Amino acid sequence: FQVPLLLSTVLRLDTDRSVLRSVASDEHIASKIRRMISVVLKACPDPRLGTRQPQSDYIIYQVCKVLCLLRDSCESNRGGEENLGVNSTMVQVGSLPSNILPEEAVEELYSAVCACAEVSSNELCRQLAYNAAGDSNSFDVIRLAYSLLTLIRSTESLSGSTGREFAAGESQSPDTKAPKLNKWLVAAALKCFFEEQNKDGLWAKGQPIYKNFRRAGRNMGNAFVTPLNTLGSLLCSLPAEDFRPYLGFMERSLAWIENHISVEMITDYCDPETGRCFGKPIRGWCSPHASDDPMPQAWPTAQVLKC
Question: Which residues contact 75 (CB under 8 A, 6 or more apart)?
Fold first, then answer.
């Protein structure tokens, strides 16, 4: 979770890659970035594993975002090598200097994004089938939402791709042709998502962020996705018009936001005679899954503000 989140933050802020190019001469930093990119590539879903993916659908989405940021950078800068003052290898993968790229990056990036599209499409259809069949034990609204988000992001990145050559001079293999986004499938998934909303404006906690909890310190607050994180990501990924039929559902979510602002007093001074304390109030939100910790927390607050 941390690796793709950090990488996507850096890549989105350093759009011209000037910061990453400036630190590439430091081999210690370069090796760290190489390792992070390699970890993300290895964490991409494997279509051969079917339903036995090692990562949750939430983490697959975070991984997909990084892969697509790298791929989008190559496409937007293709042909602009002279302006960037870099070689073609640099333009191929995220406009990054070759010494901070793992060796497998050039070969694996396209296949990794295609794998995200294939696995997310399969899982989305599976979740819609469970829902249509009334199988509430197998259906998971969080998995449905993040499969949809991964499918949207990966097919968006692959759009316009005609496929990939396995050997120089040969035509593109039909198996590598980029999939098109099925608008009917997207509409059905969005409808299903909102129909599963609880009366309080939130959604069931669904699949945990991590599939196992070997480390200590996990709790309900950070083990599951904040529902408003999911809603915010959907709002960012689809046209506003797609949400017109669901304004009443979003009004419920807005009501939850307005009614669940938490306040924590950061005390600077307490008068020993009167017992009165003075300080700064911190306002925000906590995860709805963290009933034992109602104080504002940074991550849920950021997601609520995004939404």
Answer: 160
